[in-house]
């Protein structure tokens, strides 16, 4: 009898405990559902805290170094190369003889031209004397004088040919490539030597149309070279194209004095200073993406006690992806930078960390 009573009491306790658990779990679930519902009412957003900052407006453009002077030295006349006096890598001066062309046939023509000149001088002298006594007509004298001038011109012409048998450097520089060997037969205009002058180099870059009005001829430009990271270089702008390319970029050249380490063809970056720096100090800015319906609207959402309030600000200049704020926003305020497309004035928000 007592045993049965104990069983009844234990069974009643278990039933009571199970009932309590059910009620407790139901309350917990209701609380969780309420919390989730509360979160669903909020819109997830990203924000930034507005603080003054210094804006770097330097404009960078990449390009390659080109020689200030370069040329393919060619022959002026046809002929066979007799000797080559320099090799690749040799430094040469303007006017220095690089190679010579065989001149045997030209020497024969020079001798003939000189003989013809001597004969023309003698004939003309005889006609000059004869004209004084009436022995020849004025027409005959004029013909004699013309033959003398032609003979003098022929001698000068042959002298030019003799000079052209010496192939001379047109500029000072370094022989970058030698394309001729003794025994080769060359024709006028055939490139024989590539000469480059890299004492001064030109950095050729493209500048966007939005920046071209901020630079000027003679302006100093800082330059960094990938393969020479420890070398501080600078140059000056010597050329700004008056016309852009199809991509609305303007070719610009920066002249750099070579201290010995630079080579034509090296890749480098030019950094253009586009203002004096004072106007971009301690400035309030927000990302351009934070504006509702674009920067021109001047509308932003700011955080106020867990809600998003729509405000109107006065904007200044645009610096890349940042917009200057002149008024309407204070330091320390939080501005919504993403998620604002789902917001209305007064919407509850959940800030994503």
From TrEMBL:
Residues 204-274 form the CusB-like beta-barrel domain. This is Efflux RND transporter periplasmic adaptor subunit. Belongs to the membrane fusion protein (MFP) (TC 8.A.1) family. SUPFAM superfamilies: HlyD-like secretion proteins. It comes from Flavobacterium agrisoli. GO terms for cellular component: efflux pump complex. It comes from the Bacteria. Residues 284-350 form the YknX-like C-terminal permuted SH3-like domain. Residues 75-196 form the Multidrug resistance protein MdtA-like barrel-sandwich hybrid domain. One of its GO terms (molecular function) is efflux transmembrane transporter activity.
């Amino acid at each position: 009898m007592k045993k049965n009573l104990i069983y009844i009491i234990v069974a009643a306790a278990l039933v009571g405990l199970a009932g309590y658990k059910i009620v407790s779990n139901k309350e917990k679930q209701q609380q969780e559902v309420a919390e989730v519902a509360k979160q669903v009412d909020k819109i997830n957003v990203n924000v930034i805290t507005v603080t003054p900052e210094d804006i770097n407006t330097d404009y960078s453009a990449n390009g390659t170094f080109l020689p200030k002077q370069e040329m393919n030295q060619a022959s002026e006349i046809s002929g066979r190369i007799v000797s080559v006096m320099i090799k690749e890598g040799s430094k040469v001066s303007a006017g220095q003889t690089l190679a010579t062309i065989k001149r045997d046939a030209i020497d024969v023509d020079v001798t003939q031209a000189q003989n013809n000149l001597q004969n023309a001088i003698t004939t003309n002298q005889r006609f000059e004397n004869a004209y004084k006594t009436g022995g020849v007509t004025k027409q005959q004298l004029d013909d004699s004088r013309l033959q003398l001038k032609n003979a003098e011109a022929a001698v000068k012409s042959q002298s030019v040919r003799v000079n052209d048998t010496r192939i001379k450097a047109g500029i000072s520089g370094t022989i970058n490539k030698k394309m001729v060997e003794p025994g080769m037969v060359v024709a006028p205009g055939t490139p024989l030597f590539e000469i480059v002058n890299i004492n001064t180099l030109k950095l050729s870059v493209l500048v966007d149309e939005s920046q071209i009005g901020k630079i000027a001829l003679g302006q100093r430009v800082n330059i960094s070279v990938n393969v020479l990271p420890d070398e501080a270089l600078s140059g000056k702008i010597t050329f700004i194209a008056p016309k852009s390319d199809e991509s609305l970029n303007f070719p610009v050249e920066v002249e750099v004095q070579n201290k010995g380490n630079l080579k034509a063809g090296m890749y480098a970056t030019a950094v253009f200073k586009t203002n004096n720096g004072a106007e971009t100090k301690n400035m309030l800015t927000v990302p351009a993406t934070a504006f509702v319906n674009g920067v021109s609207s001047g509308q932003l959402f700011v955080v106020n006690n867990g809600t998003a309030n729509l405000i109107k600000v006065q904007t200044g200049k645009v610096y890349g992806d940042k917009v200057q704020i002149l008024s309407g926003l204070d330091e320390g305020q939080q501005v919504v930078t993403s998620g604002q497309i789902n917001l209305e004035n007064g919407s509850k928000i959940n800030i994503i960390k």
